[in-house]
Design brief:
The structure is a single chain. With 236 residues, this protein is α/β, with parallel strands linked by helices. Helices cover 39% and strands 29% of the residues. It has 6 helices and 10 strands, in the order E-H-E-E-E-H-E-E-E-H-E-H-E-H-E-H. Helix 4 links the parallel strand 8 and strand 9. Helix 1 packs parallel to helix 6, helix 2 runs parallel beside helix 5 and helix 3 crosses helix 6. It starts with a strand and ends with a helix.
């Protein structure tokens, strides 16, 4: 049976999931609280990683090493990079890449970590489950596309334009690609699920506080629906 590792950067992104966990057991590692139990009939571990790529990668590695997860879901909010994604819409990752890695002076494409793929592809099965779950929660407002990650809160039009040009991504955030890279290195399937909280432009500082909680709640509901879909498929 699948054992889910579910990572959110902030408490608002994981609190509802922890509240729905059956038989929860709490433990701490590297200053992070891991809540292990059963979610929608599936073994699961829910954890708040903290913001940024290093926290996210550490968290994903602990899930692999200490909890034996067989699939990783990264859930949370993001800024839109395109007109196709409005505030409140959902994005399921086709793949993920960095927007702030730059080794082009030694002949690597911008975004590529030497020795790694330019973009890390999400697992096809998890992607399908995530899309179906997202559509069940918010019909007609889900897209599949690339996630761009970097250690920046993107809130300026110039930033947004540069990131879009480099990555061709649909949304930007601060953890997903680090989790994707860690999953890739551990041969654990992953998918990233993002609800749009702002437009990643000059309006972002105003939009983000208003819509963060709404977007995070939507992502949590999709994550639970996804766990239910996986469990039902495995019960057949």
């Amino acid at each position: 049976m699948t054992k889910l590792g579910i990572i959110g950067a902030m408490d608002v992104e994981v609190a509802a999931l922890k509240g729905k966990m059956e038989k929860p057991v709490l433990s701490k590692r590297a200053g992070m609280e891991f809540c292990e139990g059963v979610l929608e009939g599936l073994p699961a571990v829910v954890v708040q990683s903290g913001v940024g790529k290093v926290n996210a990668a550490m968290c994903a590695q602990i899930l692999c090493d200490c909890f034996g997860v067989t699939a990783i879901i990264n859930t949370g909010v993001a800024g839109s990079l395109c007109n196709d994604l409005d505030i409140g819409d959902l994005l399921v990752s086709r793949d993920a890449m960095y927007h702030d890695v730059d080794c082009h002076f030694v002949d690597y494409p911008v975004g590529m970590v030497p020795g790694m793929p330019l973009a890390f592809e999400a697992d096809d099965t998890l992607l399908a489950y995530a899309f179906a779950a997202a559509e069940s929660v918010n019909p007609g407002h889900t897209k599949i596309g690339r996630v761009a990650s970097g250690d920046q809160f993107v809130c300026q039009t110039e930033q947004k334009a540069r990131i879009t040009a480099v990555t061709m991504a649909m949304c930007t955030e601060m953890e997903g690609t680090a989790i994707a890279q860690t999953a890739f290195r551990n041969a654990v399937p992953f998918v990233i699920l993002r609800a749009i909280s702002d437009k990643a432009d000059d309006s972002a500082q105003m939009d983000y506080p208003t819509f963060e909680a709404i977007a995070a709640d939507r992502c949590a509901r999709v994550t639970m629906a996804m766990a239910k879909c996986i469990r039902e498929a495995e019960d057949e």
